[in-house]
Amino acid sequence: MASDYTRFQTEDFVLDDSFRAYVAGSDAAAVQFWQGWLAAHPAQRTAAEQARQLVLVLAQARQPAAPAQHKAEDLQRLQRAIRKPAVAPMLRTQGRRRSRLVASLLLFLLALGTGYGLWTKRTLLQPQTEYTATAGQPRTVQLPDGSVVVLNGGSRLTTATAWDSDAPREVWLEGEAYFQVSHLASAANVAFAQATGNAKFVVHVGELNVSVLGTKFNVINRPGVLNKVTLNAGKVLVEHPRLLGHDEQLMKPGDLVEYAPAEHNLVTRVVKPAYYSAWVKGSVQFDHTPLTEIIQLLRDTYGLRVTVDDPAMLRQTITGSLPNANADVLLSALAKSLGVRSERSGQQVRFRTLR
């Protein structure tokens, strides 16, 4: 990995191979590196998030079955569009020049025909407010419209600093959050398509857009791994925009919609939604949940790095309710449920078989 990422700006991240692999979830080592690096360098998160959105835009703009030659040509065109001069004099106009480079990149992406371009451009140009929850410490946030968001540990929510009454309310989530959205629609039963102004509330979750008018739901966004939306009450529209059309699912209470980047499709099943929002009240509910998914939760929520000494453990599942207010208590309960021993040193955890 390079050692000068602290000097990177938006376009530098976009052109970095390892960063693009992290966004795509195609390289486990890159995903692990960038998650750790961004957690350790909060000053770079804004530029990295802008770059992540641009990389997603570029990925959506390409045909899924494009030959390798076409992908290489796309990247070469992207590099030509935003390449910096070999010698960059320190002038007062340098900031404006960099802004023009980013603007050129946006125009390039829009020329590729993707529907994401417009809202991405608006996001890059608007002042933003960021809310974060530290590892193992949920945080409750009240938004300007009165909506309440509970962020799980290790999660981040980004919004425009000022919301326009003539535009949808939009937020961007990394991690997990439980939303209680205020209903601003003029009519109680207005359809999503007829919602105007700020009646619609949209959560951008990786490659998905989750639209509501006013309801309660839980969202999980694990970059490069999976996205889950669970509906407790009301209606939710989940959309996955594509270059040609888009997939969508109108959820009803009790539905869970899951999207895995590797599968490129929405999967819906009926669940007990209280299981997925139980963490808000101090516990976690598992329903035949595989250990691999629980390890991901421990990493994203508590910042723990978990390994096992027997790969067979990864095939085990857990069903039941466990306390989550304290990471050590949760680890102890997990070990007991799995019939193993947990050993922790700092943020490193190892599950060992009982001998």
Summarize the structure.
This protein is 32% helix and 30% strand. With 355 residues, the chain is α+β, with helices and mostly antiparallel strands. It has 3 domains: 5-125, no CATH class; 140-276, Jelly Rolls (Sandwich), CATH 2.60.120; 282-353, 3-Layer(bab) Sandwich (Phage tail protein beta-alpha-beta fold).
Notes on the structure:
- This is FecR domain-containing protein.
- It holds the Pfam family FecR_C.
- The chain has ten helices and 18 strands.
- It has three domains: 121 residues, no CATH class; 137 residues, Sandwich (Jelly Rolls), CATH 2.60.120.1440; 72 residues, Phage tail protein beta-alpha-beta fold (3-Layer(bab) Sandwich).
- The strands form three sheets. Strands 1, 2, 3, 4, 5, 6, 7, 8, 9, 10, 11, 12 and 13 form a 13-stranded mixed sheet that branches.
- By secondary structure, the chain is an alpha+beta fold.
- It starts with 9 loop residues before the first helix and ends with a strand.
- Helices cover 32% and strands 30% of the residues.
